[in-house]
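Notebook entry, structure prediction.
Reason for the run: the old model in the group folder had no record of what sequence produced it. Starting over properly, with the input documented here first.
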Amino acid sequence: MKGQTTNILLVGVGGQGILLASEILSETFMLAGFDVKKSEIHGMSQRGGSVVSHVRFGEKVFSPIVPEGEGDILFGFELMETLRALPLLRKGGKVVANDLQIPPSSVLMGKAAYPEMVDERIREKFPDFLLVDGQRLAVKAGNARAANTVLLGAVSRRIDVAEEYWLQALERMVPAKALDVNRKAFMLGREF
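New structure, fully documented this time:
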């Protein structure tokens, strides 16, 4: 794994903790001894718009942007955004997604419909698909806002990096007052 670059894409809408999750991913890979590059694209993210974060790690990484069709793992925080990002994945890529639908403003205003059977459509194209009930597990951990950390735990099972580095990164990146809940959320996602 050290010889090649691994490409991870995080997608969802503003306010879901995507940027913190990408920071924790990056920190984890740096602690594990990898070169890491990261980039974010915010589309009116503070108003519930799309957010895409690219995280690339390996022995030597030259660009922060994952080329279209070369993503190894798609880490989706919202189902429609996950579906829209599928072209970024390589054939045989892995998908871990939150079982959550957040209708965009066009759907709320009646100008469009939320796509039907999104999870089935994702699984049809990418059989290595894990659908996680991030909100339910986050509530079980003690805070619904920790769904991003639940998802990190689920993604951590798809990446060959020791658990200790994930936990160290959480300790460094999550505020002390929220660390216990986030640690529980991470482990619930990891065990999912």
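Summary: The radius of gyration is 16 Å.
The old model has been moved to the deprecated folder.
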